[in-house]
Design a protein that fits this description.
This protein is an alpha/beta fold and 250 residues long. The protein has one domain (2-246): EAL domain (TIM Barrel), CATH 3.20.20.450. Helices cover 45% and strands 21% of the residues. It has helices spanning 2-10, 50-60, 62-79, 93-96, 101-112, 126-129, 132-144, 160-166, 176-179, 186-202, 214-222, 243-246, and strands at residues 16-25, 31-42, 46-48, 86-90, 119-124, 148-154, 171-174, 206-208, 227-229. The protein has an eight-stranded mixed β-barrel. The protein is globular and about 45 Å long. The protein starts with a helix and ends with a helix. The model has no long low-confidence stretch (mean pLDDT 95). The structure holds guanosine-5'-monophosphate (2 copies), manganese (II) ion and sodium ion. Residues 21, 37, 90, 152-153, 176, 209-212, 230-231, 236 line the site of one guanosine-5'-monophosphate.
């Protein structure tokens, strides 16, 4: 496990950085926030995808150190913006089940001065089911700090519906696999409509991920989806790319 060894040193060696992807209000098109996404530039291999290295980091607990760095970096960055846009941070199962996680989030909010209501923690259902009681306690404690919890990759995990009832989510993120071709595939359209109905019934805003075409976005607007994210509105990029939204110079 070469990568595992290299991962342990990647943060200290400055090989990690964050990119940011805009999240927009479907009705107005306005940017409402950004999701922070981790990038690792390995000295020999070049860019390694988080889809590859996050699972390795999770097996080895290196995710705790990496996740702490991500949280600090994302909150520090967002606290420097002149507009109070939200910042979404992905959190893995290992972090959720760490006894130090809630204290860490509290400390990072205090230290960076980021208003808690601007922070959104993204968790997948799979992160919660190994120990649901413990996860529920952690999510409740996180919410008591004032932040929001989004269910990431909705529709791809296990028993989504019971998880929506059991855990105190503030937002549903529909997985990109359901958004692709939503404008042309009747089955996909029916699924997305029903998730939007679910969100309405539960009083939860829904964000559609992976929006790549105007036709997909138009469908989402017609169906009154709240928010969207995807290559159409912006690829995950260095924050300087979005200076207009983060540094107040319109
Ligand atoms: O950015 P990209 O599409 O390559 O991300 C691939 C996967 O890695 C996605 O599932 C995404 O949620 C995950 N990921 C990206 N950044 C982070 C991070 O900072 N922490 C965790 N736990 N997962 C991340
Ligand atoms: O699992 P999570 O939703 O956190 O991961 C988001 C992933 O989706 C990131 O790796 C990001 O790079 C990727 N992504 C974001 N927008 C798009 C898009 O429009 N199309 C595709 N194919 N991937 C996207
Ligand atoms: Mn995510
Ligand atoms: Na997702």
């Amino acid at each position: 496990r070469l990568l595992e060894h290299d991962l342990r040193h990647a943060v200290a060696r400055g090989e990690m950085h964050l990119v940011y992807q805009p999240q927009t209000d479907v009705g107005s098109g306005a940017v409402i926030g950004f999701e922070a996404l981790l990038r690792w530039k390995h000295p020999e291999r070049g860019f390694v995808s988080p889809a590859l290295f996050i699972p390795i980091a999770e097996e080895s607990d290196a995710i705790l150190q990496i996740g702490e760095w991500v949280l600090r970096e994302a909150c520090r960055e967002a606290a420097s913006w002149t507009q109070p846009l939200s910042i979404a941070v992905n959190v893995s199962a290992v972090q959720i089940h760490s006894p130090h996680f809630v204290g860490l989030v509290h400390e990072v909010l205090l230290r960076t001065g980021l208003a808690p209501q601007r922070l959104e923690v993204e968790v997948t259902e799979t992160a919660l089911i190994s120990d649901p009681n413990r996860a529920l306690l952690t999510l409740r404690q996180l919410k008591s700090l004032g932040l929001r919890i989004a269910m990431d990759d909705f529709g791809t995990g296990y028993s989504s519906l019971s998880n929506l009832r059991s855990f105190p989510f503030d937002k549903i993120k529909i997985d990109g696999s359901f958004v692709r071709s939503v404008d042309s595939n009747e089955q996909t359209a029916a699924i997305v409509r029903s998730v939007l109905g679910l969100g309405r019934g539960l009083g939860l805003p829904v964000l559609a991920e992976g929006v790549e075409t105007e036709a997909e976005l138009a469908f989402l607007a017609t169906e009154q989806c709240h928010a969207a994210q995807g290559y159409l509105m912006g690829r995950p990029s260095p924050i300087a790319q979005f200076a207009r939204h983060t540094h107040g110079t319109i």
